[in-house]
Amino acid sequence: MLINKVLFYLFSTSFALGLLDKIIGDKFKLASKAEEGFVIMAKAIFSMTGILYLYPFLSFILINPSRFLARLFQSDGAVLISCILPIDMGGYHISSEVSKDETSKLIGGILLSSTLGASIGFTYPVAFGILKKEYRDEFIRGSLIGIICIPAGILLTSIFYGFDVLKVFRLIFFVIAIVIILAFGIAKEWFILINLMKILGRAMNILNLIGLIFLGFHILTGRAILPYKTALDESIKLPLKMAILIAGSYVFFSIVYNVLIKYSGFVRKYLTLNQQGIEGMMILLINCVPTLYLYEKMDSKSRIINAALSITTASVVGPQLGFLGAVAPSYISIFLFNKLISGLLAIGGTVLYLRYKSKQLYKI
Length: 364
Prior knowledge:
- The protein has helices spanning 2-23, 31-46, 49-72, 77-82, 91-98, 102-130, 133-160, 165-187, 191-221, 232-262, 264-271, 275-283, 288-293, 300-312, 319-327, 332-363.
- The chain is mainly alpha-helical.
- The N and C termini lie far apart (54 Å).
- Keywords: Membrane, Transmembrane, Transmembrane helix.
């Protein structure tokens, strides 16, 4: 699609500008952003390359259980797997392997795994490890709004791109049930649910490290430890492509950020957020972890909105975009639309929630 080509030209041009700025001594502060993009991607690559190497083997293990559960819940294996796996930590590749249906691969492997899967497999375990106890209540409330917006965002994306909406609804009906359970469990602070998310995140990290061990042995000796097919070439080439794309996007969005920050007063006035709240919203477009570290400096409203966006919109121009640009560039526009429309729904939902809450307090 045209928008995908435009984005790639923008990012490649921005990447070139960053390197040219490096030659003249980082005069425009673009070179440092290109380098920062590579550094961020180095951390992201370390957390995903082992999974990338193992995904054919993991798909082989998961294909039968996922199909059984899909029949049981009248859904699709790709959709079920994507509820717990982030897009760049096995969600996309494993979903693509376990399902033959293109719509299911798109809904599950891209739209769901980049939102719900990323939330359960990454954001929640990380957030509950970073945030102090006194800030968790606001994060929980905001994240609940974000989770509720995920199915709505997928349905709106399906309508906009002309998909079979009834088919999509049937596919995500089970997801809606999961979202309701999650919303109730998180609202009640079920520690067993939170601990399960932490265990899942820890298990993914351990699995990734095991994959890195096998990958290192395979590269250095030329022999595979596993007797099954692995993705050696892809796990080497993909991270480099991602790093270049993210370095370019960092430069591009640093320019956009500098422009937007001048007009952030309008956003701050409309949403009544403090400066750290605005900065957190912009930063989480690349990665939500730095936003979580800003939580202490935000006001209450900013914390709730940023929590909602951490679920729906985080990494829309960060590692997730880099990953998708490397493996399935034709789906970038759908990915961006879904993340951004879900983010707008999350902001709208948060504003309505806060207005309702203030009215209730006023009545008291």
